[in-house]
Amino acid sequence: MRWDNLADNPAKSATSGEAALFAADAVTTRTFDTPEFRGITFHEVRARSIVNRVPGASRMPFEWTVNPYRGCSHACVYCFARKTHSYLDLDTGLGFDSQIVVKINAPELVRRELAAGRWHGAHIAMGTNVDCYQRAEGRYRLMPGILAALRDHANPFSILTKGTLILRDLEVLRQAAEVTEVGVSVSVGFVDPELWRTVEPGTPSPERRLDVVRALSEHGIGCGVLMAPVIPFLGDRPEQLRATVRAIAAAGATSVTPLVLHLRPGAREWFMEWLGRHHPELVGRYERLYADGAYAPTWYQRRITRHVHELAAEYGIGPAHRGTPRALPGRDEPQPPLDGAEPTQLTLL
Prior knowledge:
Structural class: alpha/beta
Strand order of the largest sheet: 3-4-7-8-9-10-11
Low-confidence stretches: 1-5, 7-19, 320-349
Strand content: 15-25%
Radius of gyration: 20 Å
């Protein structure tokens, strides 16, 4: 395994000026012989930093992220983050699903970096690379400390997840929402049980995820749904879109944002291999639809978006309206706004 890209290497640092993400001798590999972790290897690291700036060329509508894990046992065949495992010479297919990097010092790092004088309270997005509430979080419990640090600094944040484990942290989320802007979105691209079992085999079912939306809403934490991905020719029939939006509305979601499947390098190869095994008749259609790159044609994306928005209006799902960040009690000045920009919906899958 090549940790050199990320580990402390004096020769590299001297020539490139790049800051190491963790020390070369700070990697501990573990396996656990319990049913939920069988077949999964955890690489525990002590990270150098945790609040990361999003590259300027990114399409993401946020500037800062916190990602306590790399790799994801949700094993979604389309996951765009698969490519990141190749930076460690780890396999982007099964390796991404079963070789999980855990930044065990993430909570203390978040607290330290938020307290730094150079930090000005910008919005932090979580769950934007891999799911911070994947199965590993049940053992490592990194998120309660991360959320507590964000709460204590009244720092605005958002979470995108497919994991039901977020309900474990309901109380700290509620506390954070009293002092700052908190946005939660759950990813539910479809409610078809057969499609779920094959493309998202390690995730809670769509029904259980919608139960999360319902529970958060009942506790006063508004929750939107990122309807992603809408999978061409497998999850985009009118009756499928209607069933999904109807279920989202019934769960009490504050908003629904559709996003069509995109296939970046790393994810594309793994998805197309899966497609050839399960739906070989669709391989040619996908090659044509995605002939120009990672994204489906604009006309197709607009058609799906328009249809979902019409269904959302029919079922009474309104647009999302985020609240205003509030001041931490006892501080003289409120937290600054997010670079003057209007908040936007998460769009990443």
